[in-house]
TrEMBL record:
Its EC number is 3.4.24.-. It is found in: Cell membrane. This is Protease HtpX homolog. It comes from the Bacteria. Belongs to the peptidase M48B family. The keyword Hydrolase applies. The gene is htpX. The active site is at 147. It is an enzyme of class 3 (hydrolase). Keywords: Cell membrane, Hydrolase, Membrane, Metal-binding, Metalloprotease, Protease, Transmembrane, Transmembrane helix, Zinc. Zn(2+) binds at residues 146, 150, 223. GO terms for biological process: proteolysis. The lineage of its organism: Bacteria, Pseudomonadati, Pseudomonadota, Betaproteobacteria, Burkholderiales.
Amino acid sequence: MKRIVLFLATNIAVMLVLTATLSILGVNRFLTANGLDIQALAIFSLVVGFTGSIISLLMSKPMAKWSTGARVIDPNAPNGAEEQWLVDTVHQLADRAGIGRPEVAIYEGEPNAFATGAFKNDALVAVSTGLLRGMTEEEVSAVLGHEVAHIANGDMVTLTLIQGVVNTFVVFLARVVGYVVDQMVLKNERSGGIGYFATVIVCELVFGILASIIVAWFSRLREYRADAGSAYLLGSREPMIRALARLGGMEPGDLPKSFEASGIAGAAKGFGALFASHPPIEQRIRALMNAKG
């Protein structure tokens, strides 16, 4: 289960910190002072649910640079012909996609690449040294097209919105269950007691895991769209098909879990497939081969 999204883990962690902080400030007691205030709970759930995902999104680009040790290439002073080609290729693809030219970075590691950032016109595309060494220029171009397509499709923002929606349900349902357990099972006279707080924390963890399955499902769908986007930007599906076939014979490098979903490859098997951010390589190749146009 290596490809469970770190974006989700960071997001859940932020939610739990917010929950604990607001509980200390007495917000939970306010929600249950005169029975469960559903309207106030709905507003509270929206605020907490979207705060976690938005913070994760805004942190994605600096976190990516820090955690991989990615070195951003100065477009005006690249270190050698390879870096010049890399920057020129990403910029050409970005121009075709109609987005601002992203920062381009290289990091040491096994084959992988990723794109991240909160804004289409201020994103980051990073490629590992392993990918550059193991692929032809055409295949690397296809991978870069895939990452630029992610940016052009607004995938990080869409993922954030979906995560915010599922977070809202997680926060809301966790407190409803907490209230029921506190009042009807434990029969506490005071609302918002330790039973309520403990149940909320446990439910947020359990519901958060279930919500991750929904977000991972969407993440897999966007990989198909990015593959198709690469084919469109390069004017042919063959380079992306060859790049995927090459990736199928490699061991992709691990990315930090906060932005694993942004990587080019990585699919789990068995039960872990429910949480995988990427579909299997063979399914992606089949989808490209069967695509119209």
